[in-house]
Amino acid sequence: MNFVRKLISRKGGLFGWRWSYLLLAIAAALFFVAVGRVPAIAQANATVVVDFAAPQPNIKSMSGFLYGVDQNEPPSNQIQPLAPKFWRTSRLDLYPRLTGFGARFQLLLSDTWGYGKPRGWPYDDYGKWEAHVRNLAKTHKGKTMMWDVWNEPDLRDPFWKGSREQFFETYKRAYRVLREELGPDVMIGGPSIMKYDKGFLTAFLNYARSNNLEVNFLSWHELNDQEITAIASHVQDARRSFQQNPAFRSLNIKELQINEIVGPTAQYRPAENLGFLHYAEQGGADAAAKACWEPKGGGKNNCFNNSLDGLVQPGSFASRAVWWVYKSYADGVGSRVRSQTTNPKVVALASRSNAQNQAQVLFGYFEQGRSSPRASMTLVLKNLRQLNLAQPGQPLTFSISRIPDSGEAVVKQLTKLTQEQIAVSDETVRLTIPNLKLHEAYLLTIG
Fold first, then answer.
1. Does the reported pTM lie above 0.90?
2. Of 150, 170, 318, 411, which residue is most buried, by most CB within 10 angstroms?
3. Which CATH architecture best describes the domain 16-57+334-446?
């Protein structure tokens, strides 16, 4: 079986024999070629084009979390590199720690009340519900935080036993108390339903409009690991249909939030996590939070074992593979440049400068529907000279590291697959990387 290697070099050249050597090294280090039957599903192909002369300004980071920590665990040196911008929890005692990382704090109000027990449901006694909300508002008046009224009211078991209309009333009662106690600027929103359900959202917003309520952030969850590619279109549809719709102007919808992303089968898979981050960012969401699920081997849910939603190992707090995805994502989000792919399951997020002052491309191949176990990617790097990383005629260092699909195993450092110094011209560089492994991610750095 032959690997495809192609170089397009023009004036100034790329020293073709050296580039071919790099490709051979990548092929040798990255990929195992099996002798045997051809797989039933043909290998996937993709061309990814990165333009380092096309900055993408005002990109909002999708690095966010749901619970996952305690007062001291995981240690701050495992959280700070991820630069979290959003945290959703009911742990008001953690407000100083979480905001200290630079994260905006979202209070999950329904978790402070409970789901049926011991207080019953808000619609059993709206007066008690209002008193609960008022007490919290008064106690925490000095904190800058968003108030998420209820979690997944479209999921009967376990989060909501009442009717849709009773949830709407619950929102109204909480909203009016919060406005009364905290004033016109406090961010109140929802409905934080379990999926993008346009019918539910429309009914909720129509009710809010009819009752002179605001929905300062409109929120839902994206937890279907087989619909990752739909996330961007959901956000864009919500923007057109609701946020930009003059009919809903009175609701003052300031943000569109996906306040839970990543489902249970994808929770440890690097490429799938990258896919969620990529499509949430591509859609222009204002915030996202990684959901948490049961560990594979049993034990406490990853929300409550201080594993940072499964990114680190409980107890030792050593990094898992997905921690490296979030770390690499955070390193590059501030200098994003345009990248485009011909295969929606092969995605890349490119940046002009990371924490080590290197350009980088974080890429991976995730599963959706029938997917070949491997894919071939042609990576087209345009306008490298725009990076000002080297003087004309001086070489740049190209390195590729692997973020393995290793589940709950510890990954202390990324394995560097290849590194080579290449002198480049102002023209386009094409690198064909064969056999990207399904579920894995890779980090190309250029410096």
1. yes
2. 170
3. Sandwich (2.60)
